[in-house]
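Case study B.
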Amino acid sequence: MKTAVIGGTGLIGSQVVKILNASGHEAVPHSPSTGLDLLTGRGLPEALKGTDVVVNLTNSPTFDDASPMFFQQSMDNMLAAANAARTGHAVILSIVGADQVPDLVYYRAKVLQEDILKAGPVPYSIVRATQFFEFMDVVLSETADEKTVRLPATLVQPIASADVAQEVAEVSVATPLQGTRDIAGPDVFALDELGRITLAAHGDHRSVVTDNSAGTFAAASGDDLIAKDGAVIAKTAYRERLAQ
Ligand SMILES: NC(=O)c1ccc[n+]([C@@H]2O[C@H](COP(=O)([O-])OP(=O)(O)OC[C@H]3O[C@@H](n4cnc5c(N)ncnc54)[C@H](OP(=O)(O)O)[C@@H]3O)[C@@H](O)[C@H]2O)c1
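Model:
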């Protein structure tokens, strides 16, 4: 299958391109650095010409009030171009529980992205993943100083980006779901505990202070970010990854 992977130079996109090409499909990465800008539409018609599938793995440059505009404009452009090119399947990657955390503008932006895709003219699939292992250092640094890291006890279920990319690749070359598939890591952690495990594994002697008002993930509670029944559970465990 011929697939355009927009955001194909990013963490997930670059892995999806490799997986698809290694399994005999033709996947082409696109991003501003290759001449495609989803916000302006530059390079889109050429990129989608003759493609069976478009996979959108872009991300907003900021997670703030500008993020809804990024997803609105990029999705409008992508769907108009995919419809014109008669692309048969559009795929996006969203976040497990995004609709449960309306206080986070970035999560509202991801729900907006999903809603635009669902209402659009192109057969679609949505993959929702939990927080990537690779994102955890960003989460820890958000509320860190020289001696402490403040983290809420919010439950998270982190997943290896490689497992996410594998699922996105498989969904991309299958029949459109016309719905959503959730994928999550094998273990649930309280974020403060996950911080302690991570710092210890890195030989970082700072202490974690539990603070349910600290950082982005303070906005989530209970099992908001935890995959529900029916989700695909990935194999790679966070503790194993830390030990590597
Ligand atoms: N982080 C998490 O834990 C998590 C969990 C679930 C879902 N997700 C979702 O996963 C998706 C992919 O995340 P990621 O970490 O792989 O992102 P990433 O590494 O930041 O990559 C983003 C990609 O988007 C491209 N891009 C940015 N602006 C663009 C534009 N205007 N036009 C075309 N391409 C553009 C970038 O190109 P350049 O390299 O040229 O800048 C890059 O290829 C995101 O939508 C995110 O919401 C993330």
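The pocket of NAP is lined by residues 6-7, 9-13, 31-33, 36-39, 57-59, 93-95, 110, 129, 131-132, 135 (CB under 6 Å). The remaining cases will be described in the next quarterly update.
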